[in-house]
From TrEMBL:
Keywords: ATP-binding, Cell cycle, Cell division, Cell shape, Cell wall biogenesis/degradation, Cytoplasm, Ligase, Magnesium, Nucleotide-binding, Peptidoglycan synthesis
Classification via PANTHER family: MUR LIGASE FAMILY MEMBER, UDP-N-ACETYLMURAMOYL-L-ALANYL-D-GLUTAMATE--2,6-DIAMINOPIMELATE LIGASE MURE HOMOLOG, CHLOROPLASTIC
Stretches assigned to the Mur ligase C-terminal domain: 353-480
SUPFAM superfamilies: MurD-like peptide ligases, catalytic domain, MurD-like peptide ligases, peptide-binding domain, MurE/MurF N-terminal domain
Protein name: UDP-N-acetylmuramyl-tripeptide synthetase
GO molecular function, one term: magnesium ion binding
GO biological process: cell division; cell wall organization; peptidoglycan biosynthetic process; regulation of cell shape
Mur ligase N-terminal catalytic domain sequence ranges: 23-105
Residues that hold UDP-N-acetyl-alpha-D-muramoyl-L-alanyl-D-glutamate according to the record: 30, 162-164, 190, 198
Essential cofactor(s): Mg(2+)
Length: 514
């Protein structure tokens, strides 16, 4: 291809060379750059990749997109004046936006060949995207998925470091989906991906906004809630049709600058039934019943509005009713053939690490959840109380090298809401587990909660199960789908679900009740 064929929508100034330069690839990692690449420079908060220009020129790169003048770096490359004159330089305002647009062009704009559904919000993105994908697949629509649990195409799952991958990897995934015959793609759209311009140039067919609460605010994230909200709501000006949770306290702010055709959904409380029809959401859920049977823990509820149906949901919790309603609402917007598959999917749906019931017996229920902050933890524990357990036992820790406020608030929440907290390791990173647990312990004690300290996470999970009382509900939280523990920069395999299953199997072999 010629460079000029890749510049659709990109604002640039040609600072040297020719737009007829031959190009084959886009790169932004200097260690992988090679001849035929367009190397995109970005000035980040920690690394300015402009300083690697001499290195990539020596590797054979002859097309560079840069945010500033690079004469000094060009001169340091060792290339002759004539060779430097043959280098094509595009001056761009924002390297990250340039990377997104060039990556889309390099893969032939694959997102345009899919029905693209973007889901954003503070909570519920992962569960809702999985629900939507399961509904589409049940309706015979081959669907790819991108989110916290990885990139899913058919039976293959590829792990990702970010909820929304870097723009190059994102368009590469779309291209693989198209090649695999996918008609639809469902993806989580994180606020960081908007801020870091990973989704620039992408226009979604449908956008879904679950909710928003203060989160991801701090160094290397968002400077304040206003910025966080602004990044989240940008989805609603980058899609054709939008579906928004009308019950969110920030609803008016969320839809304020929306340019798409808007639909709403809401889980109605009993006091909401007398609303005027003009204020009614397009999709509403009501009459929620919490069901705990020998082989089923979940909810039943009714959906009314643009869709009318009874739903039996195989994942516990009020907030999962919201997620399910959002998915059903999206199915309603997608069409009758998709909607007809929704009811059957909801009863059997399971989402890895999200209110995932790993074991259920008359003696105990053991589940895994990704709740790793106080807001998610309180919502989880309040939900589990609805099932009237004899004891609510919570096994958790906190990640190291993160704000200490998170561990203090989680300790306080656990102390107030659980009957027993078993404090244990999470991803300690470069902190000592004992120091993290001591911080949590103080908050649990402050809330007058009962607790135990078992630093080894495997031992803590096993203890909770081996010492369960009849009717206990045990929540192992914080890591969810994660299949590793990170200590001093090293990740080793660890999956909560596997440890639970191994413990149950050991009890069976020992002939002990489980």
């Amino acid at each position: 291809m010629k460079l000029k064929d890749w510049l659709d929508g990109l604002e640039y100034e040609l600072a040297g060379g020719s737009l007829d330069a031959e190009v084959r690839e886009v790169s932004y990692d200097s260690r992988k750059a090679k001849a035929g690449d367009v190397f995109v420079c970005m000035a980040g908060s920690r690394v300015d990749s402009h300083r690697f220009i001499p290195q990539v020129l020596k590797a054979g790169v002859r097309v560079i997109a840069a945010e500033r003048d690079i004469e000094e770096e060009m001169a340091a490359s060792g290339l002759s004046e004539e060779e430097r004159g043959a280098v094509t330089v595009l001056r761009v305002k924002d390297g990250r936006r340039a990377l997104a647009l060039l990556s889309a062009a390099r893969f032939g704009y694959p997102a345009r060949k899919l029905v693209l559904i973007g889901v954003t919000g503070t909570k519920g993105k992962t569960t809702t995207t999985h629900m939507i994908r399961e509904i589409l697949e049940a309706a015979g629509k081959k669907t790819g998925l991108i989110g916290t649990t990885g990139i899913v195409i058919g039976e293959e799952t590829t792990p990702t470091q970010n909820t929304t991958p870097e723009s190059y990897e994102l368009h590469q995934a779309f291209a693989k989906m198209v090649e695999a015959g996918c008609e639809y793609a469902v993806m989580e759209v994180s606020s960081q991906s908007v801020k870091m311009r990973r989704v620039d140039g992408i226009y979604f067919d449908f956008g879904l906004f679950t909710n928003i609460t203060p989160d991801h605010i701090g160094p290397d994230e968002h400077k304040d809630f206003a910025e966080y909200l602004a990044c989240k709501t940008r989805l609603l000006s980058s899609c054709r049709q939008g579906l928004v949770n009308r019950g969110d306290s920030h609803f008016e702010e969320i839809v304020k600058n929306a340019t798409c055709k808007l639909y709403t959904y809401e889980v109605l409380k009993e006091t909401d039934t007398g609303r005027m029809s003009g204020e009614h959401p397009d999709f509403c859920a009501s009459h929620i019943a919490y069901v705990s049977a020998p082989k089923f823990v979940g909810t039943e509820f009714y959906v009314n509005g643009m869709v009318n149906m009874k739903v039996r949901l195989g994942i516990p919790g009020y907030f999962n009713v919201e997620n399910a309603l959002a998915a059903i609402g999206m199915a309603g917007l997608l069409g009758v053939d998709v909607l007809s598959a929704a009811a059957g999917v909801m009863e059997r749906i399971r989402v890895n690490g999200r209110m995932e019931i790993v074991y259920k017996s008359p003696r105990m229920t053991v589940l895994v959840d990704y709740a790793h902050n106080a807001v998610s933890m309180e919502s989880l524990l309040a939900t589990l109380r609805q099932y009237s357990p004899k004891r609510l036992v919570c096994v958790f820790g906190c990640g190291g090298n993160r704000s200490k406020d998170r561990r203090y608030s989680m300790g306080e929440s656990g102390g107030r809401m659980a009957d027993l907290c078993i404090l244990t390791a999470d991803n300690s990173r470069y902190e000592k587990v004992e120091d993290i647990l001591e911080d949590i312990r103080k908050s649990v004690e402050k809330a007058h909660g009962a607790y135990m300290l078992i630093p080894d996470r495997r031992e803590a999970i096993a203890y909770s199960i081996r010492n369960a009382e009849e009717g206990d509900m045990i929540a192992v939280i914080g890591k969810g789908h994660e299949d590793y523990q990170e200590v001093n920069g090293v990740r080793t395999h660890f999956l909560d679900r596997e440890v639970i299953e191994e413990t149950i199997e050991a009890l069976r072999k020992e002939g002990k009740p489980c």
